[in-house]
Structures are given as C-alpha cells and as structure tokens.
Design the sequence.
C-alpha cells in the first residue's frame, strides 16, 4: 500500500473526511483520523503551530480526498463567518498542492485531472469573492519552505489565478478561461525536467543571460508542450498555450517567434511575464508596470496592456 501526501492547509474542520489520515513518524506510520471523522479546528491549529505541513492518505483514496477538498472550498466560500484569510489559505493550499503534483509527475493523467479540477475551483472561488485573488498573491512562503521548487509552484498558482481573473475581466468565453487556468498551472512545467544547473535560469532575467543560458532557457515552452503532446487526455488548446507562453507580438518572443497572438495567448504571456517578474525575480508591482510602459510596447497589444494595468491596480496585486 502506498501513501500520498496531503497539505494541512487543505483541511477544514466540521467536514467529514471520507478517507483515513495518517501521520508519518521516523520509523512508522500511525492512523491520525478515520474516514468517518472530521478534524477539529484545534487539531488543525495544533498541526500548523507545530509546523506540520503534510499528512498522508492511502493513494487508493485520492478521489475521496479530492472530493473532500471540493466540499471544503464550496463550504468556505459560501460561509460569511469564514475569514478571507482562511478562504485564501484553503485555495492556496489546494492550488499549490496541485502545482507540486504537476511538477513531480507531469506526464500522468491524474496530474492533468487535478489541474483541471483546481482550475474549476479557482474559477468558482475567484468569481464569488474578488478579494481571493489578492489573498493568493499576498500569501508568503515560510522561510523554512522558501526554496526554488516552492517558489515555482507559487508562480504556477499565481499565473493560473491571474489568467482566470484577467480573462474574466476581458470578457473571454468560459471554455477559454478554463484552458487558461490549466495552462497557467502547467506553463513552466519544463522547470521540473531541467538539469539542476539550469533550473536557476527560471530565476534570472532574460536580459541578464549569456548566449548559452538564453539558448537553454528558450526551449522550455517546447519541452513543456511536448510533455503533454502525446497524451490523449490533454487538450490541444492547453498544449498550444503552454507552447506560446513566452511569445510576444511581432516575433519578439520564443520559441517560434510568432508574429501575431490570439487574445488568450496574449493573456497567458502577459500574466506569466508579470508574475515571473514579481514572484521569481523579486521586483515590485510598480517596477513591472513601469516596464510595460517602457519596454513592452509592441510586445503586446496596447489596449491589452492598458487593461492589464487597470486590472492589476484595481485588484491590488
């Protein structure tokens, strides 16, 4: 029997689990809560206080766990007594857990299904409360958890959330919003396949890379698309978005130097660029927005840039 890690931040009190939960000790695994139980709020608070990030479930009960996460999110979003911080923590916990899974096992149908489910939950949560997007972006990683992998997982969730909200702001049809949500989670999945010596490029400005580094970095959209290209469960629209997330208008992007972009391609490109600058490179919002005015004119439709800047400021990101 195998065990699957689950994040403590995805747990909510007063919701029946539907699966057994275990805690891992150095030399054994102990039952922590039974499927017919719920986990009381004081126990969740205790786990967080002790910096316990993960518990475990039988891998055969993954579907029950996903159903539980869906019920937790639905319950929290419709409950006015649940604080914005608690709601955001649940959304972030579920989203980053999916991003972690994608990076660890990008080829599997289970990872893709989890991304689709997470995108749907994000669409619903962001539609019910505009402040959730700000809560996702304001979430900071604990110093003990702050490592390159965790930062990339946060970048994936941020990009997906930003794409969903900006696409809604732009009035795109629902199916395109769903594709963007999944593509946002997957767009930089090539990071997980990169040699250790090249992973640092995802945290380096393109303008600071030498020729060799730039050549290596420019293939990552293609690698990401190829991971899903032969999978019958993966949407061709999502794959196309992953392949084009570094493209700019006029042939200024890569890997294919596209001269024109669809609206959805432009949305993913601009959202991924914005969050990479903020989350991965540590720049301020104002500095990135200024860069749009100074250096990105011509790379994106001027009207889209204007609307994106209004959207970002309106959302308080």
Sequence:
């Amino acid at each position: 029997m195998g065990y699957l890690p689950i994040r403590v931040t995805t747990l909510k009190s007063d919701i029946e689990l539907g699966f057994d939960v275990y805690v891992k000790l150095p030399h054994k695994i102990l039952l922590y809560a039974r499927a017919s139980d719920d986990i009381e709020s004081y126990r969740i608070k205790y786990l967080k206080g002790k910096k316990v990030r993960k518990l475990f479930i039988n891998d055969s009960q993954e579907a029950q766990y996903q159903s539980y996460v869906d019920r937790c999110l639905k319950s929290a979003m419709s409950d006015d007594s649940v604080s914005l911080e608690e709601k955001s923590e649940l959304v972030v916990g579920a989203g980053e857990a999916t991003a972690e899974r994608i990076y660890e096992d990008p080829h599997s149908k289970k990872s893709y299904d989890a991304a689709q489910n997470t995108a749907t939950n994000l669409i619903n949560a962001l539609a019910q409360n505009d402040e959730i997007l700000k809560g996702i972006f304001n979430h900071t990683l604990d110093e003990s958890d702050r490592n390159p992998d965790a930062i990339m997982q946060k970048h994936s969730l941020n990009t997906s959330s930003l794409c969903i909200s900006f696409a809604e702001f732009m009035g795109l049809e629902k199916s395109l919003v769903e594709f963007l949500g999944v593509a946002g989670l997957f767009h930089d999945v090539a990071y997980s396949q990169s040699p250790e010596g090249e992973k640092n490029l995802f945290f380096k400005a393109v303008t600071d890379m030498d020729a060799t580094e730039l050549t290596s970095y420019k293939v990552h959209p293609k690698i990401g698309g190829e991971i899903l290209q032969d999978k019958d469960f993966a949407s061709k629209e999502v794959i196309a978005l992953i392949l084009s997330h570094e493209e700019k208008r006029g042939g200024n992007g890569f890997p294919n130097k596209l001269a024109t972009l669809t609206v959805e391609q432009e949305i993913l490109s601009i959202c991924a660029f914005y969050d990479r600058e903020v989350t991965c490179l540590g720049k301020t919002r104002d500095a990135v927005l200024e860069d749009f005015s100074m250096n990105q004119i011509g790379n994106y439709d001027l009207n889209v840039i204007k609307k994106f800047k209004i959207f970002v400021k309106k959302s308080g990101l």
Observations:
- The chain has a mean pLDDT of 93.
